[in-house]
């Protein structure tokens, strides 16, 4: 694996897990990476933490993520089905510390 890449795992709707190699040197957010990987993320606001359509549930690696901003918390707080491990993918910049992160799209059952 390239030293500028990390492995991210995405739990699919059927419960299976897909492994992805994600670049950390391109300034991408998790939302941008998931969209590029053809996941069904609306990202209506374009990554401004204004819509919560890129919400993911962090299944493993939550401790590796940056602290939640007030804007992110306020947006997540509007979701009726918010989970303690929910985050906005647009607010998570890919970085080497996120190696092994496992998420699922929040709107999936």
Automatic annotation (TrEMBL):
Its cofactor is [2Fe-2S] cluster. Coiled coil: none annotated. Pfam families: Fer2 (PF00111). One of its GO terms (molecular function) is metal ion binding. Residues 4-109 form the 2Fe-2S ferredoxin-type domain. It comes from the Bacteria. The keyword Iron-sulfur applies. One of its GO terms (biological process) is P450-containing electron transport chain. Keywords: 2Fe-2S, Iron, Iron-sulfur, Metal-binding. Belongs to the adrenodoxin/putidaredoxin family. PANTHER family: FERREDOXIN-2, MITOCHONDRIAL (PTHR23426:SF65), FERREDOXIN/ADRENODOXIN (PTHR23426). This is Ferredoxin. It comes from Pedobacter yulinensis.
């Amino acid at each position: 694996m390239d030293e500028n890449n990390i492995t991210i795992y995405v739990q699919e709707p059927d419960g299976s897990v897909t492994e992805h190699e994600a670049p950390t040197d391109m300034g991408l957010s998790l939302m941008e990476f998931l969209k590029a990987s053809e996941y069904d993320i609306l990202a209506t606001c374009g990554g401004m933490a204004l819509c919560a359509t890129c919400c993911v549930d962090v299944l493993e690696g939550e401790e590796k993520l940056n602290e939640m901003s007030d804007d992110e918390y306020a947006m997540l707080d509007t979701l009726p089905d918010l989970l303690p491990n929910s985050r906005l993918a647009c607010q998570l910049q890919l970085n080497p510390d996120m190696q092994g992160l496992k998420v699922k799209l929040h709107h999936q059952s």
